[in-house]
């Protein structure tokens, strides 16, 4: 081969090599970029050309697809028959605003693009029969979900709050509600302007942020429910429910600017047993216990053991709870009664009670029962994962004895959670929120977390109820709601 022909050959080979490399770069390395590019609507048109699979719970449809009216391009749209109580779980599918919630997490299954549904797509090509996407089945009990929603909404107009109910043995979530909520149906609408109007009303400055899931996406001061973690730390340090700890109606920690008191004159004695201090919810006892006996490291270790600092996945995300800065005795004293920087999710508080009911073993929270192919064959079961042994069996047994005293004892603060004929334990909480610009105390948050055993003596339910800015009586209202939800599961 002469020199000019050799040079031309080399150039041609190099050009073909570059073309081959670029083709593979576009097809594989840049696939996600082009597929999700806003200017590429072929994927969107294809996604809306077939019905998506359904999101189901307890035999009820939470989300499915219906033919779009008067649209030849986008043939289907989503509908959410039970809308608001389930909206933070299902999420939404919108042509303008994309997907949220489980619609986003399981888009591959619901749209039919998941690799496990390849045979269904291949069959469609040969038979011409349109196949829908797969289905997502939840562990949610729809009746329990609606009952939790109605209970919080029924307290007063605009009541903000959340509730989580789980099975302690499996971590399966039986109910998870957040108020306020939103109707996802207008977001899925293909009527011009309807989706935008709904989005604006949900995200506007005065909207109240209804799309925020307050059960998992926000953290709040837990008030006296934090005393469960402190009591666990005390037991781990060698104390028993009968160990005497300092009490009294006032306590000022070193370096503190404020004096810690109790809600009423319920702890005047100089000493109380650890169990009686939890039963009466004595702030002074737990603040002194942390500062004078336990120290910051013991409290921090126990909080971390219960999952503080971790982000759970259900598969929806759960914000991490935190115990804050414990470096100063004044901070530590406040943290041990659930104030200062301590912040927890409603889910976290439910998991604490679930672990104690389950003998000290915490199961990871799980929302998925199973994933189905379009023909309803099971592709995947929801995982049943152990988070860890957060306390020993003996410590869990001591904590149950103390938490059951909170509910059953005449001096306990959780009597409203009793379920006749069943063993129930729990802890109330009232979280202060400081003052407004005029120096007036803001209404406190109300809490309850607890568990119930069924007639066979098995831990059947754990619950956490949070009522934002509920004011005086808020913790009792939360306790009443929690008792009603546990009764629905147990009876």
UniProtKB/TrEMBL annotation:
GO molecular function: beta-lactamase activity; penicillin binding
Domain Penicillin-binding protein transpeptidase span(s) in chain numbering: 161-486
Gene Ontology annotations for the cellular component aspect, listed alphabetically: plasma membrane
Region ranges (Disordered): 408-440
Residues of the Penicillin binding protein A dimerisation domain: 52-136
GO biological process entries: cell wall organization; response to antibiotic
Protein known as: Cell elongation-specific peptidoglycan D,D-transpeptidase
Native source species: Stackebrandtia endophytica
């Amino acid at each position: 081969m002469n020199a000019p022909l050799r040079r031309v050959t080399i150039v041609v080979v190099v050009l073909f090599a570059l073309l081959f490399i670029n083709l593979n770069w576009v097809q594989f390395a840049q696939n996600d970029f082009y597929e999700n590019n806003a200017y590429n609507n072929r994927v969107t048109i294809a996604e809306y050309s077939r019905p998506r699979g359904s999101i189901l719970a307890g035999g009820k449809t939470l989300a499915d697809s219906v033919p779009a009216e008067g649209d030849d391009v986008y043939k289907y749209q989503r509908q959410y028959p039970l809308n608001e109580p389930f909206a933070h779980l299902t999420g939404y599918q919108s042509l303008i605003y994309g997907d949220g919630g489980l619609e986003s997490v399981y888009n591959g299954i619901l749209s039919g693009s998941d690799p496990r549904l390849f045979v269904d797509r291949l069959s469609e090509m040969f038979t011409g029969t349109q196949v829908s996407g797969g289905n997502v089945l939840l562990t949610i009990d729809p009746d329990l979900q609606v009952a939790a929603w109605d209970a919080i909404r029924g307290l007063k107009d605009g009541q903000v709050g959340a509730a989580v109910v789980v099975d302690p043995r499996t971590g399966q979530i039986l109910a998870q509600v957040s108020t306020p909520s939103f109707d996802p149906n207008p977001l899925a609408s293909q009527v011009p302007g309807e989706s935008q109007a709904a989005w604006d009303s949900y995200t506007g400055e005065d909207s109240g942020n209804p799309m925020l899931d307050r059960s998992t996406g926000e953290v709040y001061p837990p008030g006296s429910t934090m005393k469960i973690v402190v009591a666990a730390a005390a037991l781990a340090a060698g104390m028993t429910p009968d160990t005497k700890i300092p009490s009294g109606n006032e306590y000022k920690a070193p370096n503190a600017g404020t004096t810690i008191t109790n809600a009423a004159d319920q702890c005047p004695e100089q000493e109380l047993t650890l169990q009686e201090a939890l039963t009466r919810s004595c702030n002074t006892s737990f603040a002194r216990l942390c500062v004078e006996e336990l120290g910051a490291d013991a409290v921090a270790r126990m909080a971390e053991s219960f999952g503080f600092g971790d982000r759970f996945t259900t598969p929806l995300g759960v914000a991490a709870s935190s115990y804050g800065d414990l470096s100063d005795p004044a901070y530590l004293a406040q943290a041990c009664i659930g104030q200062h920087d301590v912040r927890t999710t409603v889910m976290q508080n439910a998991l604490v009670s679930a672990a104690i009911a389950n003998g000290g073993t915490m199961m990871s929270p799980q929302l998925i029962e199973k994933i189905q192919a379009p023909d309803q064959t099971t592709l995947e079961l929801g995982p049943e994962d152990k988070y860890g042994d957060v306390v020993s069996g003996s410590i869990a047994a001591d904590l149950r004895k103390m938490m059951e005293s909170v509910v059953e004892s005449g001096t306990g603060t959780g009597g409203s959670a009793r379920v006749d004929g069943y063993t129930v334990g729990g802890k109330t909480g009232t979280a202060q929120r400081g003052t407004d610009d005029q120096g007036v105390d803001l209404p406190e948050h109300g809490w309850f977390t607890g568990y119930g055993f069924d007639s066979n003596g098995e831990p059947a339910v754990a619950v956490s109820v949070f009522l934002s800015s509920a004011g005086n009586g808020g913790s009792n209202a939360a306790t009443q709601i929690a008792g009603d939800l546990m009764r629905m599961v147990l009876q």
